[in-house]
């Protein structure tokens, strides 16, 4: 990420059902890559929408607790850190900070969540 992107409002609280996600497309969020914003167990998370294994939308996956399972080959990712938790994915998904401003959900594209996995570990 070469330049700092502005945070954007992506939804209001209540717009994303529990264990659901919305996709903020790459042109809108400024990163050029689609970002999925998840709501699960009362918390919001954002990671890159495209699975790091092949082309699949993680927003269409199975969301449970702090994890999402890819709808194509069932790799699981941590919504907190972006870590790939099982094969066939081994590359972490990039995380993005989500902030609540009153009842508005704001996304900070390209700002990783603290503690996020950013490197592939051998
Ligand atoms: S496309 Fe996601 S695990 Fe293969």
From TrEMBL:
<dbReference type="GO" id="GO:0051537">
    <property type="term" value="F:2 iron, 2 sulfur cluster binding"/>
</dbReference>
<keyword id="KW-0479">Metal-binding</keyword>
<dbReference type="InterPro" id="IPR017941">
    <property type="entry name" value="Rieske_2Fe-2S"/>
</dbReference>
<keyword id="KW-0001">2Fe-2S</keyword>
<dbReference type="GO" id="GO:0004497">
    <property type="term" value="F:monooxygenase activity"/>
</dbReference>
<feature type="domain" description="Rieske">
    <location>
        <begin position="8"/>
        <end position="107"/>
    </location>
</feature>
<dbReference type="Pfam" id="PF00355">
    <property type="entry name" value="Rieske"/>
</dbReference>
<protein>
    <submittedName>
        <fullName>Rieske 2Fe-2S domain-containing protein</fullName>
    </submittedName>
</protein>
<dbReference type="InterPro" id="IPR036922">
    <property type="entry name" value="Rieske_2Fe-2S_sf"/>
</dbReference>
<keyword id="KW-0408">Iron</keyword>
<keyword id="KW-0411">Iron-sulfur</keyword>
<dbReference type="GO" id="GO:0016705">
    <property type="term" value="F:oxidoreductase activity, acting on paired donors, with incorporation or reduction of molecular oxygen"/>
</dbReference>
<dbReference type="GO" id="GO:0046872">
    <property type="term" value="F:metal ion binding"/>
</dbReference>
């Amino acid at each position: 990420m070469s330049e700092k992107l502005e945070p954007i409002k992506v939804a209001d609280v209540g717009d994303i059902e529990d264990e659901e996600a919305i996709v903020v497309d790459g042109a809108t969020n400024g990163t050029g890559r689609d970002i999925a914003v998840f709501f699960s167990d009362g918390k919001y998370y954002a990671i890159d929408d495209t699975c790091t294994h092949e082309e699949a939308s993680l927003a269409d996956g199975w969301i449970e607790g702090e994890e999402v399972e890819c709808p194509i080959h069932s790799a699981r990712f941590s919504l907190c850190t972006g870590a790939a938790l099982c094969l066939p994915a081994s590359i972490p998904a990039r995380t993005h900070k989500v902030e609540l401003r009153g009842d508005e959900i704001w996304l900070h594209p390209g700002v990783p969540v603290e503690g996020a996995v950013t490197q592939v570990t051998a």
